[in-house]
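Before drawing any conclusions, I looked closely at one protein's amino acid sequence and its backbone structure tokens, quoted below without any editing.
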Amino acid sequence: MIEKIILAAGCFWSVQYKLSQLNGVINTTAVYAGGTKDNPTYEEVCTDTTGHAEAVLVEYDTAILSTAELIEFFFRIHDASQINRQGPDIGRQYRSAIFYFNEEQRMVAEKVKFETPNKIRYYKNLQIETEILPVDKFYIAEDYHQNYYKKKGY
């Protein structure tokens, strides 16, 4: 079955690239999610006033990649212990978040988040700050952000 989930883990350029390499991922789209401003632009999101996170809409085949496996990979590709930042990128738009489309995804996300400190050594003594929220509205980012690293190089 094909499912969708939105994952935010810092700048969407590298997140989209990494997620697109995962077996079972069918498509990825850079999006803005979790905010209140309708149809935000990149420039507006960067002001940290829209409430949106840079995120990636992931379409995946659950016959190949389970939601739990996808979310565990998500925790491996960023530092979910940081609040409103990833590395040198600072601001609420770079927060760690999982935006779910259904209750099953929420339950899986909560379970994986809870189990991650015991599965991934990096998180052993850290608190995971990832928000787990229902999808409300999301907006596709501008074309130049889509598959940025595939077009420009990593």
Remarks:
- The chain has a mean pLDDT of 95.
- Strands lie at 2-9, 25-33, 53-61, 85-86, 89-90, 96-100, 131-134, 138-140.
- Residues 2-152 form a domain with the Peptide Methionine Sulfoxide Reductase; Chain A fold (CATH 3.30.1060.10).
